[in-house]
Fold each of these.
Amino acid sequence: MSRIHNVISKQENTAVFPLVCADHCAHLLNINFSEVARDGEKLAYVLTYGYRLYGYDMVLVFSDPYVEAQSLGCPVRLEPFPCLLGPKSDKRLDRTGEIIRAAEILKNTLDVPLFVSIKGPFSLASFLFGIGDFLKMLVRNDKEARYAIEQTTEFQKTYIERLLSLKVNIFIGDPVASTSVISPEMFAKFAYTPLKVLITMVRDKGLLSGIHICGETRPILHILDTLGTDILSIEDITPETRTLKMGGVSTGTILYGDTNKISEEVKSALSEPNLIVSTSCDVPVDTSPENIKTIIRIAREISGN
Amino acid sequence: MVFEELKRAIIDMDDKMCKQLVNEAIKSRIAPLDILNKGLIPGIKEVGELFARKEYYVPEVLLASETFYTGFNIVKPLIKSQGNVKKTKVVIGVVEGDIHDIGKNIVRVLTEASGYEVVDLGKDIPTKKLIDIVAKEKPDILALSSLMTTTMMRMKEIINILENKKLRNKIKVIIGGAPVNEAFAKKIKADGYGKDAVAAVRLIERLTSE
């Protein structure tokens, strides 16, 4: 069994995976990000490079947050970095096939737990309408908001089915569902059930799932803990949960921290008895590889693995 | 009485009621400046406090901001010449490559409601354009927002360019957004970090009173 599996089942205490994504790996290889985002083979290539360079305990297939939104008609600019340009239009560009292609290649070439990142139905619905308009809709027209979330849940169910047929694990990012944005009541009303549906699909196939929500999550942690997911990737890892947490090093520290600061945050994180040491959000593109290596080295030294 | 009702309309996110009350107040010859200072501004400030206390979240603040502007846009032309605006000028915008402007919009409304002159550049502002506007507008405060790890480094780039162009010592630069924090602000030599909209306005108040 992998270290990630062992940490989930509490046979080991610690694993490490700073949230290294395709943009950082492409940057290291001096490959234009937009090429990677449009090509599954290139995506697999840069992620393989990142894994071999750093040797962390899992790989996350994550190109950018807008893959599904673009498939549903949102205009997206990929140069120099991904940017959602507006709400849904008639022009669809499906890149899910490229993500699946990358997952397929990595599954066949790397012997490490592979997770594919998808968007939570709540956040995906917000991209389709424009985040501001969608948030207002939650108050003014909750029927329409619910309908939109039902539609994005159905879309993600189909996407997940395709991914699960490859026997890859799933990581669901739902940033707009953070309580930095919506109330715990709104999370329970709109975001919880779609996440539960998707996680149940993953569990039923005997695969692993993770949830990533950046920003404030403390007020909803008790609800997140009932989702049945295997991993909770969150900014504040101090509250106690039954679910394995992932995090501990702030984005600012990985970007600018020196060895002492990184070491301090990793040590503090490892006061948690069971943890995947990680960054609180994805690793910024031009993060020094030395800082990423430092997180991994210190986590391994302290945990003795 | 009308002032309390106006305040309530904003807290309740009731655009129609706000518009009606402002128009009635104007017809009743209540000074537009009083409508703003005693009704609309206390309303949106209370919304800011509710947000700080986690009783309101972003959806409610967005709707209440719209209600505030429903009234503000009626009285603004009537009071423009009365000198209500503080002399402090704030230029605000979301950096290039980032279209997440909700936080910036909330900071804008609370800053404007606090009486500052606000020049809102919008979102996804090309760095060169932003620098040109700063050079032209000569603001006291430049407030930058970024919500993504891919765009947060633009803030450092902007500060470096301001230094190179010898504009930096004339303005205070403050930053905000999900991936940044106080330590990041220090590292890129910004003058401050606002963890939310209320904190950002307090920061502007502190920096401009120094």
Note: Chain A touches chain B at residues 23, 80-86, 131-132, 135-136, 138-140, 175, 179-183, 186, 214-215, 219, 250-253, 255-256, 281-286 (CB under 8 Å).
Amino acid sequence: MHIIVCIKQVPVKGEVPIDPRTGILKREGVPGVINQEDLCALEEALLLKEKHGGGVTALSMGPPQAEGALREALAMGVDKAVLLCDRAFAGSDTLATSYVLAQAIRKLGWFDLVLCGKQSSDGNTAQVGPELAEHLVLPQITSVQRLEIYRGRVEAERALESSLQWVESRLPAVITVTKHINKPRQVSVEAILVACREKEVITWKADDLGVDISRVGLMGSSTRMVATWLPEPRKRMGEILTGPTREVVRTLLERLREREVI
Amino acid sequence: MQFKLTMEQELIQKRARDFAQMEIEPIAAQVDRERKMPPDMAEKLVKAGFVGMLIPKKYGGSEAGMLSYILVMEQLSYPVCSCLTAMSNNVVGRVIAQFGTEEQKERYLGPLCDGKVIGSYGFTEPSTGSDPKSLVTTAHLLGDSWIINGIKRFHTFGHLDGPAIIFANVDGEKTTAFIIDKNVEGYTSSRPFELIVGGGLETVDTRFDDLRVPKSNLFGELGGGFYILLAIAAEGRLGLSIASVALAQAALDESIKYAKQRTRRGVPIASMQAIQWLLAEMAFRIEPARWSTYRIAWLVDQGQEVLKESAMVKLFASRVATEVASMGMQVHGSYGLTKDFKIERIYRQAKMFELAEGSNEVQRSIVAGHLLA
Amino acid sequence: MSSESNVKVSPEGRGRVWIFAEYSDGELARVSLELLWKGRELAGALNSQVWAILLGCGVTALAEELIYGGADRVLLADAPILADYDTSVYSQVVTQEALKHKPDILLIGATDIGRDLAPRIAARIGTGLTADCVAVDVQRETGLLLQTKRGYSGNMMFTFVCPEHRPQTATVRPGVLQVYPRDTSRQGEVIPVLISPSEEHTRVRILKEAKRPGQGSSLEEARVVVACGRGIGGLENFHRLEEMAESLGAAIAVTKELVDAGWISEGHMVGQTGKTVKPELYIACGLSGAIQHTSGMWDSGIIVAINKDPKAEIFRIADYGIEGDLEEVIPALIEEIGRTSP
């Protein structure tokens, strides 16, 4: 079975500087790691490969430094790694990103399953997976924490807010996974060396994919960031009650009753 | 000149950081307190691929390179927990690969990569610090064996199973190295010294009483021992330098965390100039120590000999460790004296770097010797 | 199958706001009413209307409720195939109607369904989407929807617009908006929607569903919330806290650690990656006031903080604070509440 995993390199933690000219996040030069839920998607793909045979391709759209994420995926054991890298892709929102990924997936050829993390730690949109499914005209299953493959069909356990849901669909399908699905494997130094020294990361540019330039990058994005700021801390007149516990508790309840909240 | 780690080095560094956070940090205080090594640490280090980094692929290592090794040592040393026993196999293994016979490489390198044995070396003696001429340990050839007599002091890991590179004088002044397998008659080791650094740093006296060592265990050339010692020392110093950097970094990070949380008169002490200046003093020392060590490791990877450079960086980095640890204690105030904070362990461990692997006095002599040659 | 041409909004359609209605157990989800409340405000500012789009089977009564909640018109698609939510069928129906009526703005709750459906619709139509907004407002002159969300663990706010593509779509976090009181005198039109679903091959079949264990009253609806984190100490203290909550008729909220410890289900988590609540009274026990948590309860009516550390950040956002040990204060509260209750 052939599985494609879409991964994203995200900033290690904390804030990412914003380019004041364009209002877009500056990713280059900021140390990156594979988004946690994408790491789980990679792990799940590798587990499925171990169980059912076949191959895994890791795919990522990003700046040149995103190659590091793909090298790590190779060290984990994926068979093929493809980087979609072109200045034209910079500033893409999820609509443009999913479009580019879909083009790449079509170019990769036959597949049984596309896996992605549910959401990235920087954007938190959880949009790319479903949008990708729409472009590829495939069933989508989101928020998956367990999945099983049986003869061309997939059964998945979804973690919803207040319930667990079991669903099934035919393959191929697009599935987004949460971090509860597995614990990603750690790679060894040997695997890293082989991945970096002997394996290949294929790079595709806009031309290689035959994308419509007007649908990628900043130009192809439908949304634009117009403002960013730090939230105002709420000012409340705090009354700190002091004294023996019994008294303090009584005073509090009095106050709350006065204000009719209890 | 590329002042940037390669992708490969970044991935290896990240792997080591994850390992340190997951496997070492959680047990660091306990190892220090109980002075007991976690039994499976060697296995975990081997599995992660850290133990064979300086050993050639032909013999089971990964040839990751000195800079990658240093990056790993930096991350693994950050929790400030001496439990990295198996990592010494890298330095010993590399030396055996450089100077050993084919038979010696075949025999020793594989098991070192697997972490099943621990490599060590013994030079220092009760009456000899660093002067090879005054070595008291002797070796003389009798038939097919070398007979070795003497004592080594502060022979780190001398009591653990594994090959030990021992330096002895042959015919008076020919300093020569031998590889000794320890489970032989005539080899004894004392109980580990109780050092102020806790946990897994175990160093012992080892004693050779008419120890019989086969001819094939002559290591390197007759009289060529000092040259081998220099090679071990040059690279051992790098490991020590980066461990100093890691310790200093830990001191700084702890101090920043503490300064932000601890309040006096309603404000965190981090807002006070005295504290701010201390933190700056700590930081500006760490930066050059780190990058200098990286550069020297890079030189090793280029095939360059680094005797002078490694002595200089060891001098510098070890001093950075003690100074920064001391400043860290100042930031913590009296709380730094308690076992509730990591800084106390950092402070205790820091001084070692100025004294081990050739005290800083020795390093000064080495550097001066090169300058005036 | 994403549409090459975007929805082009006609002059009459300018400012028209749609909300996607959700429901469970025969009742409208509160978030749908919140969206109506906001939708009316936005549509009002643009001199237009707010419509609701409702999909389901046997949900005619809910269409009426949407009118009572503020909708001017309800597009009602009622058919057996819509009984359970399915991404492809639902996105097909909503898209079909959107292409027909060309709304300017589309608001969807950032619920499980909402976050699964919205991007599918956005890609299908070919429009922009901002997820998990904590505020939406409109610029009168331009008619642009200002979509604001939190990022980077709650430490920054970002506002987005969708300048050209339509509808301007956003999913909105439940609990950040208000609702209108139910007004049965409100009038509005219910328009039936005819559907002819296709695309069997993208359907996902639900095999079974099981409610996850939850305790006490629903968090978002609760008037009073009692919250705690790791500072509560052991499980017995937690149980005592639950006792106190019960005596106040309050819901329980927790931080991530307690969910991870298995003490309570994720549905009770409040914070940046959890829920946002705005109860009238929020009692924070042993919580330090870290932004990961406070971003979820910021706007509560009255905040009470109980913490033994006088320097804890939480006191800065509290209306009343008690500096004390939970082990003493909670039992005292339980006693006092019991003593003085009617």
Note: The CA atoms of residues 3 and 73 of chain B lie 19 Å apart.
